[in-house]
Amino acid sequence: MFKRKDGRWQENVYIPGEKRYRAVTAKSQQALCGKLTDLKYEIKHDIYVNPSNATLCDIIKESMEFNKISEEWEETTYQLYIYYLNKVFKPYFNKILIQQVRPYHIERFYEYRKTKKGNSANTCQKYHAVLSKAFYYAFKNNFIKTNPMDKVDRPKIKKKFKPEVCTEEKFSLLIDKVGNNITFKLVILIAATLGLRRSEIFALKWSDIDFENRTVNVEKAMVLAADKKYYDKDTKNMVTSIMKTPKFLIDELLKYRQTKKLIAMNGNSLIFDSLKATSCTHKFIKLRDELGLKLRFHDMRHFTAVIMLKNGVCDKEIADWLRHKQVSTTKEIYEHVLDEMRNKNSDIIGNAIQRTIK
User: Fold this and answer.
1) Least CB-packed of 59, 130, 155, 313 within 10 Å?
2) Could you report how far apart the first and last alpha carbons of the chain are, in Å?
């Protein structure tokens, strides 16, 4: 390490696989030490990329490793990015250099994924997020002089998805059709009563249930990652909640616990240890198809909100119950139900006024 005549500090470093030493420079000795530490880490963990030979996929991988630490990614997020890299980006971009990528390459990629692979605009938005992080990393670290993502529009969702409204009649049909499958029936009841997401239901442990005070503690989610393994993670929006639970549901949980006495002795055991989340979804699809319905399992959560709305619960309280961070989210999702209620309220007011003026 030495100080040059121009005042900058320099260290010549041997890079395995390269024919010549690489000059690493910085304004101060301390900054140079930091750069050298980073370089040694990259070489040791096999993520070092020569800027002149860096491919787009090299940069995606390097930016992933960097962001995993700096942004404290959940393991499920990291595994998803690994899946995208190996199954989505590598087959398409192959060995194209990062310096060769132009905006039209990215736009053609989106079009290919939508038309040839059947990906939705929502999925393409996720690809856009990965590429944006990668190119920002490349620009920041001088792999490229300009960022092509600055000229690429984020894929737009043309038609906004509207969930099918699950009515009391449809819900009754579902429960009747479940029959004697007590495990599956309880899963549906929890989803519809507490409005829990599927991942939150399958993360519930017996220690989360307070039978005496009739509460359920919701603080974790069980998610299947791209590596086909289940991981515990924070709930969506990182919102935890101790939910007051109706007596009938507490009674159902008590009955269910009695059928699993040995397992229930351990408070840390999962309530639904014998049923996986993906199996639950498959069962639900089979069930709804037999009934000729178009509902998804997630619509049980929407059913919770519909029941609350129709019984006069204000949107702020519903947002709190469903653990939405903002009331606007609740209003946006259930706007179709609110419209129906506004029409009904309009008729009620109109009829009342008409009676007074006759």
Assistant:
1) 313
2) 97
Confidence of residue 149 (pLDDT cuts 50, 70, 90): very high
The backbone region for 16, taken as left when phi is positive above 0, alpha when psi lies in -120 to 50, beta otherwise, is beta
Fold of 49-160: DNA polymerase; domain 1 (1.10.150)
CATH number corresponding to 168-342: 1.10.443.10
Angstrom CA distances, 66 to 134, 137, 256, 331, stand at: 10, 9, 45, 37
- Strand ranges in 225-329 using DSSP code E only, listed in sequence order: 230-234, 241-244
Asked whether the beta carbons of 269 and 263 are under 8 A apart, the reply is: yes
pLDDT single digits (tens) 235-292: 776 666 788 999 999 999 999 988 876 554 556 788 998 888 888 999 999 999 999 9
In the predicted structure, residue 305 carries a pLDDT above the cut 90: no
Taking the domains of the chain in order of start, what are their residue ranges? 1-47, 49-160, 168-342
Q: State the pLDDT at residue 333.
A: 64
60, 138, 144, 193, 229 from 54: Cα distances, Å: 10, 10, 10, 52, 31
Task: Identify any residues that bridge with 233 across adjacent strands, giving them in sequence order.
Answer: 221
DSSP E strands, the chain: 2-3, 9-13, 22-26, 209-210, 215-218, 220-224, 230-234, 241-244
What pTM did the predictor assign?
0.68
pLDDT for residue 246: 92
